[in-house]
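Reading is simple: the token line describes the chain's fold. The lines below illustrate.

. . .
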Amino acid sequence: MMVSEQDEMDSLNSRIESMRTEHRDLDLVIDRLTLEGSPDQLMLRRLKKRKLLLKDQIAQLERQLEPDIPA
């Protein structure tokens, strides 16, 4: 069975939206931990690293959705 280009784009959009939701959730958790006063620095670093990784992955997927524009 062949996957259509539209199905592939829908799948990418769905993955991007899911990743954006996780990115927002991480942002809230990081803010909450920071406001606690003495957050676990190791956990905070890991959460920030995961958030940055998600941002990079989202950007990469968004580039896949953009049509190639000839130079």
